[in-house]
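Reader question, answered in our methods column.
A reader sent in the components of a multi-part assembly and asked whether the whole thing could be modeled at once rather than chain by chain. We filled in our standard form and ran it. Here is what they sent:
COMPLEX SIZE: two components
ENTRIES:
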Amino acid sequence: MSLIEFRNVSRVYKVGDHEQKALDGIDLNIEEGKFIVILGPSGAGKSTLLNLLGGLDSPTSGKILVEGRDIANLNGNELADYRAQTIGFVFQSYNLIPTLTVYENIALVKEIVKNPLSVKDMLNEVGLIDHIDKFPSELSGGEQQRVSIARALAKNPKILLCDEPTGALDSETGAVVLKVLLNMARNYNKTIIIVTHNQNIAKMADQIIRVKSGHIREIIDQDKPLSVEEVDW
Amino acid sequence: MLFRKLLRTIWHYKAQFISMILMVMLGVGVFVGFQGEWYSIERDTFAFYDATGFADYRLVSEYGYKAEDSDKISSIEGVDKISRFLSIKTNESKDNDVVALTVTTDIDVSGFMVTSGDEYDKTSKDGVWISDLYAEKNGYRQGDEITLKYGRLSITGTIKGLVKSSEYLICVPDENQMMPDYEKYGYVYISPAMLKEKLGFEFYTEIHVISDLDKKEFIDKANDALGKTNLVLTKEEVVSYGEAQGEANEGKTMASILPVIFLGIAVLIMATTMQRLTINEKTQIGTLKALGFRDAKITKHYTLFGLFIGIVGSLLGIGLGYFVAWFIFNPDGSMGTYFDLPSWAIYIPWWSYLVIACIIALMTLISYISAKNMLRGNAADSLKPYTPKAMKRLSIEDSKAWRKLKFATKWNLRDLFRHKARSFMTLFGVFGCMILLVASFLMMDSMVGFVNKFYYGSMNYESQIALKDDTTNEKATEIIDYLNCDYSSTSAVSFNDEGISMDIYSVGHDYVRFLDEDMEFVKLTDDGIYLGQRLIEENNLKTGDKITVSLYGSDKKYEFKIAGTLRTLTKGIVMTEKYAIESGVEYRIGKLYSEKSIDELQNGEYSENYSVIKSRADVIKSFDSFMSVMYTMIGALIVLSIILGIVVLYNLGTMSYFERYRELSTLKVVGFKDKKIGNLLITQNIWLTVAGIILGFPTGIWITSILTKALASEYEMKVIFGWMTFVIPVVLVFGVSLFVSWMVSKKNKKIDMVESLKVPE
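And here is the structure of the entire assembly that came back:
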C-alpha cells in the first residue's frame, strides 16, 4: 500500500453559473520517503492537488487515502488533527506570524502536537540558531523561508508539502533553502512534495508528476536525481 | 464609473459601512434626543407660560390685597400687567378631593386656555372652568355641577369649560409631593364676579405681576408702593416654573455629560474604522493612481465614503433623536404624569445641527486624510499593500516571567502592542460603555436610594394633616394632645434676598426624621438651626456660623446659630420647637403627623379643623410616578449604551479579525482547531474588557459625582451604591463582549485557507 493514494479525485469550482474543473478524475500513488515534484503551467491544478492532500480543501468526488485513511470525508476538527500530525506546510510567502519571534514561530507547534522535535535542533539544522529572538520582519526572505521549513518539520510530520518554496527568492537563496529542505527531509525520512514552475527543482526529484488542465499527463521516475550542487541554477 | 465603484465598495464592506452608519446614528441620536428632551420642555413650557400669562412676581399676603394695592403696583414703571389672584384649597363634595379654587382678576395674568367647552366669561356668576385632567380622572363633563367646600362656605357652579393653566403646570398641592395625582388633586377657575357673589366681598391673597424688572428693583419698588415689606415670590420659587425649569436643567445637565460621552465614543471609533477601511483599499488606490487617475480625483472618490456615512448616519440619527426625545417627553409617558401641557411638540436646538454638521465634516476630513496618506509617494509606492509597523521587542520581554508565558498570551500581548490604535479603541469602547452603564445605574441607585430613604425612612407617620388656616395654636395643641402626634410649622423667610422655607418641628414620636449629609438619620438638637445642603454650599456656611433671616410680612429679624446640615427636598431651614421658642420666633402650627389612618381622622374629633389629610401611601404613590420619569431617561440611555457597545465591539472585533486573518489562516493550516483559534481571539477581548471595566468603573463613579453635583440645585442627593451598580454594568459589558467575541470567533469556521494564504506578504 502506498503512503498516498488519489482515486478518481475531482475538484470542481463553481464560478457563477460556470463550473471549472481544477482536477478531473485523478489517480495517483505516492510512496513513502520520496521527493516528488509536481510541475505544470498556471491553472493546471497542481496547487489544488497540494491543497487537497494538505487537508486545506476537500475534493468534489473521489478518495484521497493517506496511510489507508480517506481524508476526503474528515470533518473540520479531524482535518485540523490531520494537518497537525501528518502534514508540514512550506509556502511561497513563508506565512510566519509577525508578532512571534523565530523561536516562538516554531515553538507554537507544541500547542498542537504531542511529540514535536526540539526547536533548537531545528534552528541548528536551518542555521538560524543565532536569530532565535528575532522577529520575522528582521530576517531576509531566505531566512524567513528557513524558519518556515523548521516550523513545518518541528511537528515531525510524515509528509512535507511545499508550494513554490523558492518562488519569492532569488536563485542563489532559493538553492540554499532547497538544500536545507532536502537535507532535513532526508535526515528525518520525510516524504516531500513540491509544487513548482521551476524545471531545475524537478531535476532533483525522485519522481516528477506533470499536470495539465486538471489531468496527470505524465509521471517520470528518476533513478539518479541530481543534488542541489549539481543543478545549474 | 467611479460612482459605480463607490457603490460596489460600499456593498463589499457592507458590514463595516452598516456598523459605521449605526455608530453615527446612535451617537447623533442619543445626543440629539437628550438635547431635544430638555429643549422641548423649555420651549413648550415657555409657550404655555406666554399663552396663559404666567406671572414673573407674586406678592403674597394672608390678609389679602385690595384694588388700591394692585393699582399701586400697576403704576410702578416697568410693570406690564397685574392681576389680583386667589388660590385656596377647597374640598370637592363628591370624593372630598382637594381642589384649588382659583380666581384671577385679569385672565391675561395667571389665566388659562380652554381645551374644550365655553370661552371664559368674567361676568359669569355660576361658571366653573375646570382642569381637563382632573375632570377626566373624576368623571366631570361640561354642564355638570360641582360643589366645593371651604370651611362653612360652599360654592356650587356649572362646568362651562375644560382648561389648562400654566399656574398648575405641575399640579401638586405642595412641594413635598413630587408628582401630580389628578384623582385626588385638581384645580378650577371661577370669575371674580362669582367669587364676590359667593363671599359677599372681594378677597385676594396675591398680586401677580408681569414685569421685566429685576428682582431687587421690583421688590424695592413694590415695598415702596405699598409702604411695607412684602413676601415676594419670583417665578423661580413657584413649583410650576421652578420645578419645570429644574426638570429642563436636569435634562440639560444629563445631556451635557452622558450623551456627549456617547457621541465621543461613536465618533472616535467611527474615525478609526474609516481610516482602516481606506487602508484596506490601498492597493486599489494604487491601481487607480497607476492607471493615471489624478490624486485629487482619487481623494475625492474616497472622501465621498466619509461624507456618505456622515450624511446617512446623521439623518438616521436625527430620526432616532426625535424618537428618543419623544420617548422621554411625551404626554402618554411618565413625563405626561408630571406636566400638564397643551403642546408636546419636539424641538431640537439649532446647535445640535451644528454639532451634526461638524461630525459630517470630521468624517469627510478623516476620509480625505486617510486617502491622502495612502497616495503618498509614487504610483509604485501606492500599489504596495499596506503593512503594519514591524514588530519590536517589548520591554517586558527581558523578564523571566515573559519566558514562562504561554504562546497564546505572548501572541495576544504582542498583537495588542502592534495594533495599538485598534487595541486602544476596543479598550476605549468598553471603557465608554462601562462609564455610561455605571453612571446610569449609579444615578438610578442614588435617586432611588435618596428618595427611598427620604420617603420610606423619614416619613414614619400614617397620615399628614394640614390644619385650617384659622386654627389657633391653642386649638392645635388641644388636637395634638388628643392625637398624641408630632407637628410642625412652616413659614416663609427671606435669607440673603432669597425666599426660603423655615420649618419648626416637634418630633417626640419620631414620625418625621431628618437626614444628615451622610444620609444617616439624625436627631435635631435644640442648640441651633439646620440648613439644607444647598443653602450651606451656596452661601459658604458651616456649622457654628450665625445667619440672619427676616420674616415676610413683618420687620422682624432673627439671628440663628447653625447646628448642622440636612439633606432636604425643599430649600430651607429646620429647627426644633424648643430652639424656636428660645429664639423668640413666632409661628403657627400648620401640620400634624399622626399614626392614625385617614378614616380614623376624618371620623374622629376635631376633623372640622383639618383642611387636607394625606396618607403616606398617597405621597409614596407620587414618589413612584416621579421615579418612573427617571427610569424612562436612564432606561433609554442603558438600552442605547448596550446597543452602542455591541456595535462598537462587533465593529472592532471584526476589524481585528480581518487584520489577523492571515495569521489565523496560518494557524489553521498548521493544524490549530477552530475552537483554539477562537479562544485566542476571545482571550484578547477578555483582557481588554477587564481593563475597560477596571478603568471604566471608577470613571463612571467620578462622572456620576459630577452629575450629582451639577444636579445639586435640584436634589440634595448623595451618590449611593446599590447592588445594581456593582453587578449589572459588569455583567452587561462582559456579556456584550463575550457575545461579540463569540460572534466574531464563529467566523473562524469560514476561513478560506487556500485563498487567504495566496495573498502576498
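What stands out: Chain B is about 55% helix and 15% strand. Chain B touches chain A at residues 388, 390-393, 407-408, 410-411, 414-415, 418, 662-663, 665-674, 676, 749, 753-754, 757, 759-761 (CB under 8 Å).
Send us your own complexes using the same form.
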